[in-house]
Amino acid sequence: MLARIGKNKMKRWFYYSLGAAFLFLIILFFYLFFLKTADTQPEEVFPSYDSSGRLLVMTASFPVFEFARIVGGDQAAVSLILPPSTELHHFVPSEETFKEITKSAIFFYTSDILEPWAEELEITNKVAVANDLANEEGDPHVWLDFSLASQMVENISLVYQEIDPINKKSYQERAAAYQEELRLLDQEFQIGLANCQWRELIIAGHNTFAYLAQRYNLNYHSLQGFIPDDSVDVEKIIFLSETLKKSGQPYVFFEELIMPYLGSLLRQGAGVELLALNAAHNVGRFDTISGITFLSLMRNNLKTLQLGLVCQ
Questions:
Q1: Number of domains present in the structure of the chain
Q2: Which residues pair with 311 in a beta bridge?
Q3: How would you class 97 by CB atoms within 10 Å of its CB: exposed for 0-12, middle for 13-18, buried for 19 or more?
């Protein structure tokens, strides 16, 4: 009796083990099958066009957005990932924005210096339009030299032509027309800043306008480096305050979208007034609604510079 019971237990154990082994083999088969299938499936293709058939283009700064929008024309739906009034130097896109970038046909950004997070993106659709344009100091604000801005426009046009060769001529024509606008803008600055009572361009903030100052023969001073929260040289504040007192120069400049606390120090120390310049990293919400452009921002800057430097 006991022997029969033991024998039945052995049989049940045998069948249980056999069933478990069979189930394991089935699971292993399907796992290997799906693994092999996944390896042979093509990579997921993300949408690169909007509902109207335009290229989806994402950009990371206002100048690049403006240039890409102008050159892209009706063939491109261009978006700026930077929210209105957001300071560019400290901006890092959200996870949702990263997803939108990967879905675009092209992601234009300025440079690995200005948008270091973009350098880390492992995507094939990203293009830095000004990586090779910065000076030896690595100043990323290259668009404030309008000849360098023209090169940025050219680089953007070439990318469009490569991706969409059917519309190559349209991209070339729009780029050439805008480059002519930049040439005329440069000429306006050359004439408008030729005869000024003062030639000291003092920026109570970070180092933004060095390219502009160099191109139009202005003596340039900034209280910080290329990043808005760089350390401030107290001795430089004292030196500039004393210089302003002696010269009688009535104005110093600060950058829109950044609080002018350093300008307040110079105003108190030297009795000067403050005027705002726009470096065009980004624009405010009202500017976005009103449709302000890079060219109009720069012409406003010219008027401000002529006022502050007392130009004829």
A1: 2
A2: 196
A3: middle
Three-state secondary-structure class, residue 215: helix
Q: How confident is the model at residue 117 (pLDDT cuts 50, 70, 90)?
A: very high
Helix (H, G, I), strand (E, B) or coil at 279: coil
Kindly report the CATH number assigned to the domain that includes residue 209. Answer: 3.40.50.1980
Q: Residue 6 has which token pair?
A: 């033991």
CA angle 199, 201, 202 (to 5 degrees): 135
- In angstroms, the CA 269 to CA 124 distance is 52
CA distance 190 to 159: 31
Residue 99: HSE in the Cβ half-sphere, 13 Å Cα cutoff: 3
Kindly state whether residue 1 falls inside one of the protein's structural domains: no
CB–CB of 212/190 below 8 Å?
no
For residue 204, the model assigns a pLDDT of: 81
Reported confidence tier of residue 45, pLDDT bands at 50, 70, 90: very low
Enclosing domain of residue 64: 55-181
Q: How far is 216 from 225, CA to CA, in rounded Å?
A: 21
Q: How far is the C-alpha of 267 from the C-alpha of 92, rounded, in Å?
A: 33
Does residue 244 share a domain with residue 147?
no
Contacts of 273 by beta carbon, 8 Å cutoff, 6+ apart: 250, 251, 252, 267
Q: How far apart are CA 189 and CA 184, in angstroms?
A: 9
Q: Give the per-residue pLDDT at 268.
A: 60
187's CB contacts (< 8 A; 6+ apart) are none
CA neighbor of 174 nearest in space, from 77, 71, 68: 71
Q: Give whichever of 26-35, 96-105, 146-155 has the largest mean pLDDT.
A: 146-155
Q: Name 92's Cβ contacts closer than 8 Å, sequence gap at least 6.
A: 117
Residue 278 token pair: 């726009």
